[in-house]
Structure to design on (411 residues):
């Protein structure tokens, strides 16, 4: 095992990005068929959205539980527990026989997935200097989007040939590989120094005192509406139009191509020129293209319009978290990131409730158009934001004379 450990060349942020790539692959392989899998247990498409909202509630709760656990459990230890638990939950889906079993299993799935992804994200942040956050965020999202490209391309045809149950089993293998690699590598982590005021409600109060952080929260909340349309309602719409699981998988895979192409470059340019311009431009592009789908709502045109909108999303994804990290002290990273991460989770809760309610009384066409309005509102939030990252670094956080900067995570 020692020889195997030495044969793994990656360490620090790249190592944790590799782990996240494997974890996300498990998720993305089942992404094309997950709404269709849930559709077997409910009456209509709108109820699938309500189950996604239920999952989002679990996600928000899990986020705060993880924050509490991080006060007493080291990140690497929690990451091991969550990755292995995530692997086990995938093996449970083939055993589901009704909607109640699905809802119960979702509790474990959302806790373990939230714990794994949030903890790995914090470990990546601990491994990077502030000046390189934008570039690392771009690299991080490039690899995550690569998983979103590969996973649906594999998962859609696999499900069509072997069924939904074996697709879950196959997807679980990648989480198992991540767990084995983490156990073999077993990276060392220095104890984290918690802020003496590190309490959940105090964190929320202090977070929402800052206008820029509030606007970032609203933008992350709004972005969840776009991805809810892409990964929940588009597969349902395409299935209604007669598309196969394979074609749905290929369509979903297309949406990450713009993100893979642009996000590393956007991250580097955001380090040099600031984040605001990319946030404003990205939300406008995404909102405008999504709105155009209202005027010609055919399956192929909708896929093409959403694909064009993803070029705007590529300007937002790597920038929003980088903007957060640059605007706060390193000591506040864990507590403020936990609050911030609930924005996307809360959006993932509200978006299916909102869209499914529209779908029950109207059509997919109006559902997608309403999403465009929300994204344009996010562009207004971005325009109102005052970027503080660069001034923040200049004015405040120099180390005391004679001290050295030490990474929290080492190998």
């Amino acid at each position: 095992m020692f020889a195997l450990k030495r044969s793994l060349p990656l360490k620090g942020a790249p190592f944790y990005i590799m782990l996240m790539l494997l974890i996300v692959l498990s998720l993305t392989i089942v992404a094309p068929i997950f709404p269709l899998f849930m559709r077997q247990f409910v009456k209509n498409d709108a109820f699938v959205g309500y189950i996604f909202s239920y999952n989002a509630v679990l996600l928000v709760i899990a986020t705060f539980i993880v924050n509490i656990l991080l006060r007493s459990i080291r990140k690497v230890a929690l990451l091991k527990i969550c990755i292995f638990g995530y692997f086990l939950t995938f093996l449970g889906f083939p055993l589901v026989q009704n909607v109640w079993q699905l809802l119960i299993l979702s509790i474990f799935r959302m806790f373990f997935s939230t714990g794994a992804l949030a903890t790995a994200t914090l470990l990546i942040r601990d491994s990077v200097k502030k000046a390189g956050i934008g570039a690392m965020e771009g690299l991080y999202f490039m690899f995550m989007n690569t998983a979103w490209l590969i996973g649906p391309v594999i998962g859609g045809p696999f499900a069509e040939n072997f069924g939904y149950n074996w697709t879950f089993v196959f997807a679980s293998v990648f989480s198992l590989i991540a767990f084995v690699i983490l156990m073999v590598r077993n990276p060392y982590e220095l104890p984290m120094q918690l802020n003496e005021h590190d309490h959940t409600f105090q964190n929320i109060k202090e977070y929402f005192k800052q206008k820029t952080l509030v606007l970032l929260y609203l933008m992350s909340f709004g972005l969840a509406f776009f991805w809810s349309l892409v990964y929940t309602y588009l597969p349902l719409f395409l299935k209604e139009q007669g598309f196969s699981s394979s074609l749905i998988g290929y369509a979903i895979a297309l949406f990450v191509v713009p993100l893979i192409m642009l996000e590393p470059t956007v991250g580097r340019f955001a380090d040099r020129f600031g984040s605001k311009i990319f946030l404003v431009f990205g939300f406008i592009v995404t909102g405008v293209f999504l709105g155009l789908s209202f005027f010609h709502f055919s399956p192929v045109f909708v896929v093409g319009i959403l694909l064009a909108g993803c070029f705007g999303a590529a300007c937002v994804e790597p920038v929003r978290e980088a903007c957060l990290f640059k605007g706060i002290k390193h000591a506040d990273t864990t507590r403020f990131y936990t609050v911030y991460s609930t924005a996307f989770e809360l959006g993932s809760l509200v978006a299916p409730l909102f869209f499914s309610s529209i779908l029950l009384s109207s059509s997919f066409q109006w559902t997608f158009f309403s999403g465009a309005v929300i994204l344009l509102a996010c562009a207004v939030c971005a325009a109102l934001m005052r970027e503080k990252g660069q001034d923040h670094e200049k004015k405040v956080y120099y180390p005391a004379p004679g001290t050295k900067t030490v990474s929290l995570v080492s190998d």
The domain at 8-186+202-389 is CATH 1.20.1250.20 (Growth Hormone; Chain: A;). Residues 1-7, 389-411 have pLDDT under 50 and may be disordered. Strands lie at 188-189, 409-410.
